[in-house]
Amino acid sequence: MSRSVLVTGGNRGIGLAVAQAFAQAGDEVALTYRTGEPPRAATELGCLAVRCDVTDAAQVEQAYKEVETAHGPVEVLVANAGITRDQLLLRMTEKDFADVLDTNVTGVFRVVRQAAGEMVQARRGRIVLISSAVGLLGAAGQTNYAASKAGLVGFARSVARELGSRGVTCNVVAPGFVETDMTKALNDRQRAAMLGRVPLGRSAQAEEVAAAVRFLASDDAAYVTGAVLPVDGGLGMGH
Ligand code: NDP
């Protein structure tokens, strides 16, 4: 049965691969973009593109209304939008720290809170948050990002406890090194160092993350909540 799916930050990278995976499975998919024209990929996939900056609660509310009007209340929410502002601790500005937390944690809070009301009423819903292996491993130069991604685990587990009795699950996917714009910024030395720590010896394709998200939103994962599913080639083993 087709479901109403919303993917934040769905215009490129992992979010786009997730939107594509749900659309190809026959779901009604809405994806968000921040600026400019609706992404061409959305039209090609038959997805609804809604403008939304997750740092703005009014835009989140407006985007949700548009999705609800077009596809009905969101049944599967994938909170994927995220940013990095890397810098060593001693040089990290308060703004760079706060901006990452605002997008990666408070942004997730805004979209989850928006979607949760209808899910509770319907007594069913699937929430999947995109965290990172870095959230549990830590990474030099990423105190802000690691703090934000670790924060999602506590957030998800709290949501799982609050909403479990209403048939709503909340899980986390923790990707390792995925080939997207975000990791293009790494130089060859950083890339080699990172891949050297991955038992599978390669980076992931965004589609491999999308497959894990789809699993957590599927009937097969009906009894899975509060879980952190690594998709990291073994990078974070032992978490
Ligand atoms: P990209 O940089 O390729 O894409 C990030 C997406 O988030 C874009 O769609 C971007 O929109 C959107 N976004 C950023 N800020 C906001 C905002 N304030 N409001 C709405 N949308 C926003 O990153 P990836 O695809 O690589 O990453 C997706 C998620 O996966 C992120 O949460 C990231 O932290 C996580 N992740 C990525 C890994 C990797 O190796 N690539 C590894 C582990 C986790 P816009 O196009 O407008 O900028």
Automatic annotation (TrEMBL):
GO MF terms held by the record: 3-oxoacyl-[acyl-carrier-protein] reductase (NADPH) activity; NAD binding
Catalytic activity: a (3R)-hydroxyacyl-[ACP] + NADP(+) = a 3-oxoacyl-[ACP] + NADPH + H(+)
Top-level division of the source organism's lineage: Bacteria
Record-linked InterPro entries: 3oxo_ACP_reduc, KR_dom, NAD(P)-bd_dom_sf, Sc_DH/Rdtase_CS, SDR_fam
EC number: 1.1.1.100
Domain Ketoreductase: 3-181
Protein task: Catalyzes the NADPH-dependent reduction of beta-ketoacyl-ACP substrates to beta-hydroxyacyl-ACP products, the first reductive step in the elongation cycle of fatty acid biosynthesis.
UniProt xrefs under PANTHER family: 3-OXOACYL-[ACYL-CARRIER-PROTEIN] REDUCTASE FABG, SHORT-CHAIN DEHYDROGENASES/REDUCTASES FAMILY MEMBER
Name of the protein described by the UniProt record: 3-oxoacyl-[acyl-carrier-protein] reductase
Organism of origin: Streptomyces paradoxus
